Amino acid sequence: MTDQQKGSLEDRLKRLDAELAERRKDDGVEQAAEARASESRKGYAVAMKLSSEFVAAVIVGALLGYLLDHFAGTGPWGMIVLLLLGFCAGVLNVMRAAGMVASPHPVDRLAGRDPGKAGSGRKETETKDGA
Asked: What pLDDT sits at residue 131?
């Protein structure tokens, strides 16, 4: 190869490096935009889930109240009480789904133990008494 061909190859290599660096920079911007869009979609999905859980609980409470009033003839009281219970259940479901209220562990729920305590009351009194 001659010096002129080597020089043109080096120039082409430099231009190729510059173009690749520019494209890599553009790819980084596109990837960051896609990551932001993905996080936004996740946020919308969580918002739709939480709102649908709340609305469903209120609708179920209202429907059960209406049916109770219709068949039992209790007037508006069944609707009022069960609508309020549905509202409370919806709030509790949303708080549990959002992680603000922990649901009790099934073993603790069946045993009637407080999930905040480490063991049962029997073991704690035995260790306090020294037995």
From this structure: 47
- Chain centroid, CA 8 distance in Å: 58
Least confident of 17-31, 47-61, 64-78: 17-31
Query: What is the pTM for the complete model shown?
Result: 0.55
Beta-carbon count within 10 A of 41 CB: 10
Q: Measured between alpha carbons, how far is 70 from 64 in angstroms, rounded to an integer?
A: 10
The count of residues in the chain is 131
54-59: which pairs have CB atoms within 8 A and are 24 or more residues apart?
A: 54/90, 54/91, 54/93, 54/94, 55/90, 56/90, 57/86, 57/87, 57/89, 57/90, 57/93, 58/83, 58/86, 58/87, 58/90, 59/86
- Cα distances (angstroms) measured from residue 120 to each of 56, 70, 102, 125: 37, 47, 20, 9
